[in-house]
């Protein structure tokens, strides 16, 4: 029977030591929180400072979401949807492109950068984004702050997902829960501090504790395998250790069997070549007749038969495409004028319930695992179609029903994210796992970017009615 993936031999003490298990789980929880928390907070603050630069008003109230404040709108707008002059998709597109760029390029070269340096790059860039937006005197400085935060978030996500391959697979539950909590905690804390009377600038400066917390989480909280170095690429060392230990386990398991079986020769794994990395991503159909003519070593464990990485990336991308098409293309148009909440308040509750759904489902890995990722994608697409028709024909009776649908949307999105990386970690073999985890993270970013592009014409069409 195949051993549990990620329960690598040099980590056996982690499984028996509950304190070590909790330290690693909490470490990845805080890394997930810090990686996304600063991004959420900085984007909300960027809106406030951009508005301050345009209006000259230094006493603006902070928005609790990543969207444009609906209370500042064009008075000449006669649309039945009470449209904002600029779609929130514009903000989303500016936010996601730097992250998407780094996720597309980094997996092919990032293996040469040790994890300790990656963490410090993320910390410096997050702190720089806070400082740029806090002290910005021009629009371009705030935009540059957005770019730094987006780049840091993308680099951090692919790096920490890859790092999780050196720990028990349970840490993915901590990572998912932390990233889910960042959306809720970031928006609420920023809103609370600014509502308490702190200016956006002072609030941002207090948030410099976030990158410092990332340093503590990585260097002080995590219990690393002894052969994993912070400051030099050491994947081969870990794999060699793993390979040698597996040889001993195989030898022990085969005791009492036919003695003429030769012990497999320990081979030092080489880093993945660009061709191998390409083959892991692409669809590759291998027929049974072909497998008979191939040696075991020549078959790539991840891409043989139907095990292409794309089978994980496509469903994840579809889920996030439908999800952010709803969030940035439709959510601001789901307005109920006779409801007791204003348009701005309705939108903020939509966003809050969405983040709560993401938090719950990303924290659910210890309770339930969903292997049918395509089902999650289909359900999310049906969600988007339903709300698209609801915007066009306005047949939903109340915002209460929309609240339920948005909460359900968040549950689907969070479940798709955490289960995608769980099953990649489970199915990918030792040599491919680190690259596979970091590369698959491009799926959600690509879906978000595509959603932003599609949301533009949809927003303009409905606002012209």
UniProtKB/TrEMBL annotation:
Subcellular location: Endomembrane system; Lysosome membrane
Record bears the keyword Transmembrane helix: yes
Transmembrane region(s): 26-46, 171-190, 202-224, 373-393, 399-424, 445-462
One Pfam short name: CLN3
Name of the protein described by the UniProt record: Battenin
Family stated for the protein in its record: Belongs to the battenin family.
Species, as recorded: Takifugu rubripes
Encoding gene per record: cln3
A GO biological-process term: regulation of intracellular pH
């Amino acid at each position: 029977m195949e051993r549990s993936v990620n329960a690598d031999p040099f980590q056996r003490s982690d499984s028996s030591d509950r304190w070590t298990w909790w330290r690693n789980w909490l470490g990845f929880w805080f890394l997930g929180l810090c990686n996304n928390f600063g991004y959420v907070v900085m984007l909300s603050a960027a809106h406030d400072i951009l508005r301050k630069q345009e209006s000259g008003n230094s006493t603006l109230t902070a928005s609790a979401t990543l969207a444009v404040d609906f209370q500042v709108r064009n008075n000449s707008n006669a649309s039945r949807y009470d449209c904002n002059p600029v779609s929130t998709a514009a903000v989303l597109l500016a936010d996601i492109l730097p992250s998407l760029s780094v996720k597309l390029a980094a997996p092919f070269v990032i293996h040469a950068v040790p994890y300790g340096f990656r963490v410090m790059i993320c910390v410096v860039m997050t702190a720089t984004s806070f400082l740029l937006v806090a002290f910005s005197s021009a629009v371009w400085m705030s935009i540059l702050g957005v770019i730094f935060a987006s780049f840091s978030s993308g680099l951090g996500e692919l790096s920490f997902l890859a790092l999780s391959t050196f720990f028990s697979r349970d840490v993915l539950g901590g990572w998912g829960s932390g990233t889910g909590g960042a959306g809720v905690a970031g928006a609420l804390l920023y809103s609370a501090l600014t509502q308490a009377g702190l200016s956006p600038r002072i609030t941002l400066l207090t948030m410099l504790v976030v990158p410092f917390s990332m340093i503590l989480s990585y260097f002080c909280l995590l219990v690393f395998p002894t052969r994993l170095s912070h400051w030099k690429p050491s994947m081969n060392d870990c794999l060699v250790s793993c390979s040698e230990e597996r040889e001993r386990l195989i030898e022990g398991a085969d005791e009492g069997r036919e003695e003429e079986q030769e012990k497999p020769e320990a081979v030092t794994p080489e880093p993945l070549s660009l061709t191998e990395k390409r083959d892991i991503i692409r669809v590759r159909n291998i027929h049974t007749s072909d497998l008979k003519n191939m040696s075991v070593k020549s078959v790539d464990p991840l891409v043989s038969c139907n095990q292409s990485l794309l089978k994980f990336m496509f469903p994840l991308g579809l889920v996030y495409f439908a999800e952010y098409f709803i969030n940035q293309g439709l959510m601001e148009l789901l307005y109920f004028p006779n409801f007791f909440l204003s348009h701005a308040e309705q939108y903020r509750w939509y966003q809050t319930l969405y983040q709560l759904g993401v938090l719950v489902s990303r924290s659910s890995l210890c309770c339930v695992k969903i292997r049918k990722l395509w089902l999650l994608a289909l359900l999310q697409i049906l969600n988007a179609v339903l709300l698209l028709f609801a915007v066009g024909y306005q047949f939903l009776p109340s915002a209460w029903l929309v609240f339920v649908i948005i909460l359900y949307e968040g549950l689907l999105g969070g479940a798709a994210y955490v289960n995608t990386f769980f099953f990649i970690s489970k199915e990918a073999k030792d040599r491919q796992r680190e690259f596979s985890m970091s590369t698959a993270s491009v799926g959600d970013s690509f879906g978000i970017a595509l959603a932003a592009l599609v949301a533009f014409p949809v927003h303009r069409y409905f606002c012209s009615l």
